[in-house]
Amino acid sequence: MYLMHINRSYSAYRSLWLEKLHSIEVCNSKNGILSKFITQKIAYYRSLWLKKLRFIEVFTYLCSDSKNADMDVRKLITVFSDQKEELESNKLSTLCDRLEEAQISLSSKLAQVVIGVRRSGKSTLCEKVLRQEHVSFAYANFDDDRLTSLTTEDFDSILDALYQLYGDFRYLFLDEVQNVEGWQLFVNRMLRQNIHLVITGSNAKLLSGELTTHLTGRYHKIELFPFSFTERARMKDVDLSSLSVRAVALRKKALNEYLIEGGFPELLSESDKRGYVEGLLDAIIRNDIAQRFRVRYVEVLRRLASYLMDNFCQEYSAKELSTVFGVSDHTIDNYYGYLKEAFLFMGIHKFSYKSKERILNEKVYVVDPAFVTDRNDVIASTNLGWRLENVVYIELLRRYRPQHKDIFYYRDRQWEVDFMIVKDGTVEQLIQVSYDISSDKTRQRELNALVKASEKFHCDDLLLINMDNEEQMTVKGHRISVVTAAEWLVGKH
């Protein structure tokens, strides 16, 4: 009986839609053009039609489901209720303002996909944007041990539970959605129903590959890293604007702390930093990589990650590492790729106009200094120059990837430039990073490399980032800006 009633409702609303559409078309045929009023009417009735269809689909599912499925829905409601309560416990005023907020467009019909390493603040970022815009949204976090058995067939139950818990919604926030097989098909369905989607994920290739395949042109990707120096400093109430001796000194102190402790948001209040980082690393290695990619040599994977964290800012060589770990070059390349896909490491290619040379040469950077400092059995690198170079690179990714600019390094036989900012094949800026340039030898080495690179690549925007010195100078007719790292990182240069 219920299904008969539903079918009649379906037919009735279909007839209503066709009748209204026909009347609009008749009216339009008399005028010859679509007026603003007619356009609004079409949009209104289309929205009404989709809303009624959604109600009918949900109701049909409820009527036709078995008791066992009902039990599943009730379990999901319990899980999502717990998640909702946890989300609503966050105070908006305590959430950090982040640069990436401006990249999320809730009015867009494209799925807003935020990707990045675990615990970088993706969920908090999305929650903050949604709440600031005062939109009602449904929330589902799939990084929950109670949801590990979900499959493609469970998405209707998920949708059922969310509608029961939140009522009708137009915005849907899916956290770590890549943990559910077939998620991309569900996302596609939601987009077809004009649901505004906000999605987070912790695997670069998995997300980008499946989104490209199933959602071509229907998503916008935002990459999120752990706290920048500016964000961490603000959370610790560091004065970022005053030019007093005291303020400048405290900014330098805060930067030295950042080079050691990194920017994972939860580490700001965590007393057991090593335990936190080790637990995070283990979760990434085992859950995000080993299980997902069915890694055969898990211990080799872990040791490779540890080795790269000890030897960051260096060129990567699969051949050399295969000898160290006793596995093939192919295995090393695969494992290194998995580590990058989980956002533990970032690779930067050597600049060349020849694609083969760009592919073959790559330097390795770690996503956050915390992984260098706080791991079991680690002999933390005290090389502050490497740490500063690493921090600068991650900051360059924050600033220039959204602008679709590329970042390279360049090494000649006698000199090297740390970073090159390139747009459409044109070198726009050359950057050297050196923690301490008080030595004349170090100072000249860095400046001469910038001059040679400027002449080779016809670029006049030359920058030397260091900890203490700030000045403008001319070397062999080339003007070079020498700036302090703290001031550059807060955007003053």
Structural class: alpha/beta
Number of strands: 14
Q: Specify the number of helices.
A: 18
Oligomer kind: single chain
CA radius of gyration = 27 Å
Shape: globular
Helix % is 40-55%
How would you write the strand order of the largest sheet?
Answer: 9-10-11-12-14-13
Report how far the terminal alpha carbons are from each other: 71 Å
Indicate the mean pLDDT.
Answer: 86
Q: Biggest sheet: strands, sense, closure?
A: 6 strands, mixed
How many domains is the backbone divided into? 3
Classify the beta-strand content into a percent band: 15-25%
Please mark out the parts with pLDDT under 50 across 5 or more consecutive residues, or reply none. 1-15, 25-34, 64-71
Can you walk me through this structure?
This protein has 493 residues and is of the alpha/beta class. It has 3 domains: 64 residues; 156 residues, P-loop containing nucleotide triphosphate hydrolases (Rossmann fold); 233 residues, no CATH class. The protein is 52% helix and 16% strand. The chain has 18 helices and 14 strands. The strands form 3 sheets. Strands 9-10-11-12-14-13 form a 6-stranded mixed sheet. Strands 2-3-4-1-5 form a 5-stranded parallel sheet, sandwiched between helices. Helix 3 packs across helix 5. It is globular, with a radius of gyration of 27 Å. The N terminus is likely disordered.
